[in-house]
Amino acid sequence: SVAAIRRGHTTTPFDQDPFVFDPKGRLLQLDYADAAASKGAPCVGVCANNVAVLAAVNDKIADVDARHAMTFAGVRADGYALVDFVRVHAARERLRLPDEAPSSRSLALALADECHTVCIGGGRRAYGCRCLLAGLNPDGEACLWSVGPGGDARHHKSGVAAVGNNAAAVVEALRGYTPTDAEAAVAAAAAAVLDAADDGQVASVVALALDARGQACLRWRADLRREDLESDAWRMACREALAPSSGDDLAVY
Description:
Layout: H1 28-38, E1 43-48, E2 51-57, E3 62-65, E4 68-74, H2 76-96, H3 104-117, E5 129-136, E6 142-147, E7 153-155, E8 160-163, H4 167-175, H5 182-196, E9 203-210, E10 217-224, H6 233-242
Antiparallel strand pairs: 1-2, 1-8, 2-9, 3-4, 4-5, 5-6, 6-7, 9-10
């Protein structure tokens, strides 16, 4: 007969459960989730003059509501599951407070709570992605938040953030550049994504701004290649979309 082996302190597989600490005080499942997020295609967020911009490859930018958009790096299925979660939360907030648009902070903290909840029990694993949420607060201020697998939410007051592969290098490259208008912010975000991605990739870009009356949210979306950044065609389209004469046909929250 084979004698039963009693698991000791040094042989317990601490990485089998997402809510058990190892002897060094780490949650190994969170380390694995962070590793998955860091290997994802890069995503960039830039805010300038109350304009919020997200850029990512592989068309991973999703609309949350009229004033917010979201992207992520890591496991695609996990990212879209979190997109759906934030959409539902935003819809509930609009039903609860119909006269006030959900703030970026409330959406980011709800997303962080969902990520943290799966790490403290219930038999679920951590989400293998890191998210970027960009949007406009009810007062028109452009905001940028990032949320990690452990539920760590960060408000990027600098107006620049990145997740995914080479995220630190992307942020460092953008730190010394301050976009002055919507077109400059779009160009900076798209260029940063393309520089960090493989050759031949396309940068999907979304820009959010308020109209002149401060009520309707304007949204412009495009797919830009590296050679497109030298063209004036997309700049004119961006300028016209984010500064129309009236916002009567646009969503107002």
